[in-house]
Structure formats: structure tokens, C-alpha cells
Amino acid sequence: MKLLKLITMASLMVLLTAGLSACSDNKAENAGEKVDEMMQDAGNAVEDACEDVKEGMKAEDPDC
Q: Which UniProt keywords apply (predicted)?
């Protein structure tokens, strides 16, 4: 049973290593950067909407 678990873990490590080396041409990095940019844009849009609402309500503190 321990041998089977060891073989399974070793096979998984080999597959993961091969998968990561296939992404060495910066595709994963570019995808990550795009996700970061989208999250930043979404955060900015929410903050802008919040500030607009506070401005419309004439709140004392317009920052969100």
C-alpha cells in the first residue's frame, strides 16, 4: 500500500513538473498579469461608483 502511494505521488510530481515546464514561455505569467489588471480595474470601478453615490447624497466624506 505504501509503495502504491509512493508511485502515485512520484507520478503526480512528474506530471506537475512537466506541466510547469510547458508553461515556461511566459503564458502563465501573462495570464496572471491580465487577471491582476482585471481585478485592479474592477476595484477601481467599485470605488468610483461608491464615490459617485456619496457625492450624490452630499456626504461629508466623499472617499470610500
A: Signal
